[in-house]
C-alpha cells in the first residue's frame, strides 16, 4: 500500500504520480516532520498486528469489536500523517482501508448484538463487527473467508508498522549518520565518505533491531528505461519499491554521491538540503522579525565571530583594524596611509601565524 515507482537520473528523482523531486528532498521532509511519539506509535502498531485477526477464543470474541473500533481510529490518525508527507501528499492515499477490508468480510460478523427476526435487513456497510460464533462453528466457506480476512489484516498491519519503523530510522539512524558526515562542515570526497560509512557501520554492528540500522525495508527491483524529460532521451534507473524505507535508502546514497545532502542548520536547527553548491552550515530561511535576513546571512557572521573569539591573533588584528579605520574616518589618517597600514597588518598577521613574531611583539607592532 505504500509501494511506489521512482526514476533516478543524476540529482533528479521522479516519483510516478507525484512528479519531480531533488535527490534527498523527500528525506529532508521526513527529517523535518514533527511526528507524534514514534516509539509509542510503533508499540500500538505491534499490538494491533498481534490482535487483529478473526477471533479464535472466547475473550477475543468479546473484545473484538472494541479492538477494531480503536484500530479504525488509530490507523485513521496515521493516514492523516501519511497524507502530509511526500510523495504520498501528491499520491492518492486510500483512506478507510481497514474499514473496507472488514466490510468485504462482513457476513462473518453482526452489526449489532440484537436478536433479529427474519424481517431484518442488515445495513450495506457495517460499523460494528460482533462475532456470532467461534471458529469451530464456521462452515467451510466462512472458514476460508476468515483465513482470507486474516491474511489481509496481517498485510495491512505489517505495512503500517513498517512505515512507522521507516520514519523512526530516518529520525534516529539517518540523522546521526548525517551529523557524522557534516562534522567537518564541508563536502567529503569519495574516500572520506567511505571511511565515515565504515566507521558508522561498525558502530551499528550488533544492533538487532532493523529500524535502528542504516538499511532498506521491503523489496525493490531495478530496471533501466530511456525517458525524455527535457530535450533528449537519457537513461533513468527505474525502481519499484514496496516501502518508503527502500526508496529513502537508494535516494540517500545517490545524494551522498552527488553532494545532495540534508543537514541541520546551525542557526535555527531545522533541516535543509545542500545542493552541491558552496557548502554552508546554515539554511536560507528568513529569520523571524528580520525581514530580509536569512540564517545564512547571520550565520556566516556568527561563524566569523566565533573564529575571531577563539583566535587571539585574528582578534588582535580585527581590533587594530577597527581602530585604524576609525582614525581614517576621523581624517587622522589619509586613505593611502590607511591602505598602507592594512597591507602591513596582513603581513604582520601572517608572521604571527608562522611564529616569526611572538604574540607580544605582534600585538605591539600591529597597533602602531
Ligand atoms: Zn536556519
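Sequence proposed for the structure above (368 residues):
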Amino acid at each position: 500500500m505504500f509501494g511506489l515507482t521512482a526514476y533516478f537520473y543524476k540529482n533528479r528523482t521522479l516519483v510516478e504520480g507525484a512528479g519531480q523531486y531533488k535527490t534527498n528532498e523527500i528525506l529532508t521532509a521526513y527529517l523535518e516532520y514533527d511526528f507524534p511519539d514514534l516509539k509509542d506509535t510503533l508499540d500500538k502498531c505491534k499490538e494491533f498486528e498481534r490482535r487483529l485477526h478473526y477471533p479464535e477464543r472466547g475473550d477475543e470474541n468479546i473484545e473484538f469489536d472494541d479492538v477494531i473500533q480503536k484500530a479504525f481510529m488509530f490507523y485513521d490518525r496515521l493516514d492523516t500523517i501519511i497524507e502530509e508527507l511526500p510523495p504520498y501528499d501528491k499520491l492518492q492515499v486510500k483512506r478507510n482501508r481497514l474499514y473496507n477490508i472488514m466490510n468485504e468480510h462482513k457476513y462473518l460478523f453482526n452489526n449489532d448484538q440484537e436478536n433479529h427476526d427474519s424481517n431484518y435487513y442488515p445495513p450495506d456497510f457495517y460499523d460494528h463487527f460482533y462475532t456470532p460464533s467461534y471458529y469451530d462453528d464456521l462452515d467451510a466457506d466462512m472458514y476460508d473467508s476468515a483465513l482470507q480476512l486474516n491474511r489481509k489484516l496481517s498485510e495491512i498491519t505489517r505495512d503500517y508498522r513498517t512505515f512507522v519503523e521507516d520514519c523512526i530510522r530516518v529520525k534516529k539512524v539517518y540523522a546521526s549518520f548525517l551529523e557524522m558526515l557534516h562534522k567537518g562542515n564541508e563536502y567529503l570526497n569519495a574516500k572520506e565518505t567511505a571511511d565515515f560509512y565504515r566507521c558508522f557501520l561498525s558502530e551499528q554492528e550488533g544492533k538487532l533491531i532493523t529500524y535502528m540500522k542504516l538499511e532498506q525495508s521491503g523489496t525493490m527491483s531495478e530496471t533501466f528505461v530511456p525517458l525524455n524529460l527535457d530535450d533528449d532521451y537519457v537513461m533513468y534507473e527505474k525502481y519499484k519499491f514496496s516501502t518508503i524505507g527502500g526508496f529513502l535508502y537508494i535516494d540517500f546514497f545517490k545524494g551522498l554521491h552527488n553532494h545532495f545532502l540534508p543537514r541541520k542548520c546551525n542557526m535555527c536547527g531545522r533541516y535543509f538540503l545542500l545542493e552541491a553548491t558552496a557548502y554552508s552550515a546554515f539554511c536560507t530561511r528568513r529569520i523571524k522579525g528580520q525581514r530580509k535576513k536569512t540564517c545564512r546571512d547571520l550565520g556566516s557572521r556568527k561563524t566569523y565571530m566565533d573564529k575571531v573569539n577563539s583566535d587571539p591573533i585574528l582578534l588582535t588584528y580585527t581590533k587594530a583594524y577597527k581602530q585604524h579605520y576609525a582614525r581614517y574616518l576621523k581624517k587622522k589618517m589619509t586613505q593611502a596611509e590607511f591602505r598602507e597600514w592594512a597591507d602591513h597588518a596582513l603581513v604582520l598577521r601572517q608572521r604571527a601565524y608562522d611564529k616569526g613574531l611572538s604574540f607580544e611583539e605582534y600585538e605591539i607592532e600591529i597597533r602602531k
